[in-house]
Amino acid sequence: MTDVTAEATVGGLTEGPIEETADLVELPLLVAVRAGRNKDFDRVVFDFEGSVPGYLVQYVHELSQDGTGNPIPLRGRAVVQIVIRPAAAHRDDGTPTRTGPLPALRGFAAFRQIADAGDFEAQLTWGIGVAARTGLRAFTLTGPSRVVVDVGHAEPGTGGQLLRRGDKGAAVATWQWRLVQALGRDLAVDEQFGAQTEQATRDFQQSRHLAADGIVGRNTRAAMVQALGL
User: Fold this and answer.
1) Helix (H, G, I), strand (E, B) or coil at 150
2) φ/ψ of residue 67, rounded to 5
3) pLDDT, tens digit (0-9, with 9 covering 90-100), for 93-132
4) Which residue ranges form the domains of the chain, and what is each CATH number?
5) Which of 68, 95, 112, 155 lies 20 to 30 Å from 132 when distance is taken between CA atoms?
C-alpha cells in the first residue's frame, strides 16, 4: 500500500466546500482509511476497491450520524465533513469491507479525531475534528482508487506576533511539529508551549544563529520556513 506521505499533491488549499461527482454503475467499496503527517498539512486517504467515487468536503457546525441525525462529538475547534458517494463499506451480505482500527492521530498538528458517521444509501460520511479552521484540499487518485483530503496547519503566528512559554492552541501545535521536523526530535505535539518546547525553540534558534530566547517571532518563523523549505 502506498505510504500516505508519498501520495501526489494536487492544487492549493481552499476554505471549501470542495465537490467532485461520479456517475457509477457499481459501488466502490471502502477497504482502508489511512492518515499521515506532512510538512504543512495533515492528510487522510480513503482506499477503495473498484472505481473512484465522488466526494463533498466541507466545514460543518457538527458531525451528524447518517440515518439518525444524532450529533457525533469530536475533539478540536472545527469539524471537516467528508461525504463520499456513490460508495459503500459493506458487501451485499452485510460483511464490512474495511477492517482494523481507525488511524492513530497522536502528534498531528491539525487532526484531532476521526469518526465514521455512516454507510447509508450508497453514501459514506466521515468527520475529522481539527485544531483550527484552516485550508482544505481534496482530490482523487487511481491505482488503487483513492479519495485524498488534506487539512492545512495553522500558521504559528504572522507579522510581529509572538509564541512563547505558556501559550496554547493550534499555532503552538504547528510550531511543535515544525520543531520535530527541523531537529529530528521526539517532541510532544500537544498545543502546550512548555519547558520542552521552549528548549527546542532555543536549540533551533542556536542552530540558525539567532538570539536563543525561546520566543517564536518573525525572524524565528522565517528561519523555520527556510529550514523546512515551506
Assistant:
1) strand
2) 90, -45
3) 999 999 889 999 999 999 999 999 999 999 999 999 999 9
4) 4-152 (2.60.40.3500), 170-228 (1.10.101.10)
5) 68
Instruction: Give percent above pLDDT 70 in the chain.
Output: 95
When pLDDT is averaged across residues 200-205 and rounded to a whole number, the result is 98
Contact by Cβ (8 Å): 192, 172: yes
Cell 447509508 belongs to: 120
Distance (Å) of CA 98 to CA 92, 185, 193: 14, 34, 38
Neighbours of 142 (CB within 10 A): 9
Q: How far apart are the first and last CA of the chain?
A: 27
Q: Are 59 and 16 in contact (CB under 8 A)?
A: yes
Over the stretch 72-88, which tens digit does the pLDDT of each residue have? Answer: 999 999 999 999 999 99
Residue 222 one-letter amino acid: A
Cα–Cα distance, 149 to 131 (Å, whole number): 16
Residue 166: phi and psi, rounded to 5, are 100, -20
The three grid cell numbers given for residue 153, joined into one nine-digit string: 496547519
